[in-house]
Design goal:
Order of helices and strands: EHEHEHEEEEHHEEHEHHHHH
Helix content: 25-40%
Shape: globular
Structural class: alpha/beta
Mean pLDDT: 93
Distance between the termini: 22 Å
Oligomer: single chain
Radius of gyration: 18 Å
Low-confidence stretches: none
Length: 278
């Protein structure tokens, strides 16, 4: 049995997808997983330190790590109508944010990359854990905030207003689904092991879709007291056919994201797009 370190978030979309493989509900082909939870920006930072063998990661962070990690064909979060939102306490526009203080959930989140692509003039971006951004806006510690995950389902209940849906902006600009996060593995692992990981990840996602009740306890136990309706909305929003396999449409969306990041000078040394997917 080969044991690999595996990092992912406690968010419902991740626990839903990883439940079968970490609990050996499928044939893991001789692999076992020592798994750990962390917030997405902490996952990104651990990957920058080359700690985990396998990890969930923002596509933004991955663009700096293509020489050390390779993207799995399964497990990614891509889709339509699922992008990050910029919200505020008052009705303002994206251009109004240029001289404002805008909270972000992490420098290397894909959400921040999209915000930069949409308005590169926003410079005051304090990093705040994603679950605290709404309150920071309400307390007027910041003028606006970039929200991800389940916050998109709750901000209106708190009287906050949408400034821009960056997912809609991306889709209108590129006609592609939005690439948010993916699962990567160390390139230093053997080719045989990488192929196994790829197959096991796909089997785990397929099992989750075929047996949605099987992961319920694992998802609920780590959903941070999330309302069950929101928990299900979260899964339905971020886990889809692209999570089973990227396909040509998913691969094209990632290629365009890389190209746009390069064009605006954010990424200078990402590996060629043809060599980033296992």
């Amino acid at each position: 049995m080969e044991t690999l370190t595996l990092n992912f978030s406690p968010c419902p979309n991740d626990t839903f997808m990883f439940d079968a493989m970490v609990h050996q509900k499928i044939d893991t082909e001789g692999l076992s997983f020592d798994y750990h939870f962390a917030d997405i920006e902490e996952l990104n930072q651990k990957a920058f330190r080359h700690e985990p063998d396998i990890t969930k990661i923002s596509f933004h962070a991955f663009l700096y790590l293509t020489k050390n990690y390779i993207l799995l064909n399964s497990g990614s979060a891509l889709g339509r109508n699922c992008g990050p939102l910029v919200i505020a306490k008052r009705n303002i526009s994206l251009s109004d944010l240029t001289d404002r203080r805008v909270a972000i959930p992490g420098k290397f989140t894909t959400a921040n990359l999209l915000l930069t692509l949409a308005n590169s003039q926003i410079n005051d971006k304090p990093e705040i854990i994603f679950s605290d951004i709404e309150q920071a806006i309400l307390d007027e510690k910041v003028d606006a905030g970039l929200i991800i995950h389940e916050s998109r389902f709750t901000y209106q209940d708190k009287g906050l207003k949408k400034v821009i849906d960056l997912g809609e902006w991306w889709e209108k600009t590129t006609s592609c689904p939005i690439p948010l996060g993916g699962i990567v593995a160390k390139r230093s692992l053997s080719k045989e092991t990488l192929l196994k990981i790829n197959r096991v990840m796909q089997k785990s996602v397929e099992y989750a879709f075929a047996h949605p009740e099987s992961s319920r306890d694992f998802v609920k136990n780590h959903a941070q007291e999330m309302d069950e309706k929101v928990m299900q909305q979260h899964i339905q929003l971020y886990v889809n056919d692209f999570s089973v396999t990227l396909g040509s449409e998913g691969e094209n969306a990632i290629t365009i994201l890389i190209q746009k990041a390069k064009n605006c000078g954010m990424i200078t040394d990402a590996m060629d797009e043809d060599h980033i997917i296992a």
